[in-house]
Amino acid sequence: MNIIVNGEDKEISNTKLHEVLIELGYTGKKLATALNGNFVSIEDRENTALSEGDKIEVLSPQQGG
Q: Which of 18, 31, 47, 56 is the most exposed place for a label (fewest CB within 10 A)?
């Protein structure tokens, strides 16, 4: 299935947001996620199903100054 993650086309094999984040290497990080412009809480990621063409934004805090 094809989705868009942070503006880039991605081919994924999973259908749940939580599984897709792991598939794409977003593990062990504090993340904020949005699906098609709507915030998805960490509690809702396991039950959030994805569809062809969905747009996901993944943000993580950065250190620096």
A: 47
What span, in angstroms and rounded, lies between the C-alpha atoms of 31 and 57?
10
**pLDDT one digit per residue (tens) for the chain, 65 residues:** 999 999 999 999 999 999 999 999 998 778 999 999 999 999 999 999 999 999 999 998 776 65
Q: What is the CATH number of domain 2-59?
A: 3.10.20.30
Helix (H, G, I), strand (E, B) or coil at 5: strand
Where are the domains positioned within the chain? Answer: 2-59
On the CB side of 45, how many CA atoms lie within 13 Å of its CA? 18
Distance (Å) of CA 56 to CA 37, 42, 63, 64 = 8, 14, 23, 25
